[in-house]
Amino acid sequence: MFRSLAGEDRVHCMTKCAGDKDITMDIGIIGAGSVAQAFARHALKVGHTMKISNSRGPNTLGDTVHTLGSGVTAVTTEEAAACELVVLAVPWDDVVGVLTHLPVWSK
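Above: the chain sequence. Below: its structure as tokens.
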């Protein structure tokens, strides 16, 4: 259930389930630009872990991982796409190209 909340409150709302138990997730992010990093910062604050990827590979994400801090791992796009929850944060014109090369999602 999404209510009209802003920022951290909206992400925190995603971490609740029946009985108000906290749920932490390993979230895959495809894309590593400003939108992806903003989402990651908010999700990290409420205890989620992030697997972040980009089109150039995990070796190019060292500065991003360092900036975001603990709880973030640089991975391949395929590894990010295998997570239970996947955030697609790429330019609209790149969506088809990114998704076409991924295996069928099996979650």
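The radius of gyration is 14 Å.
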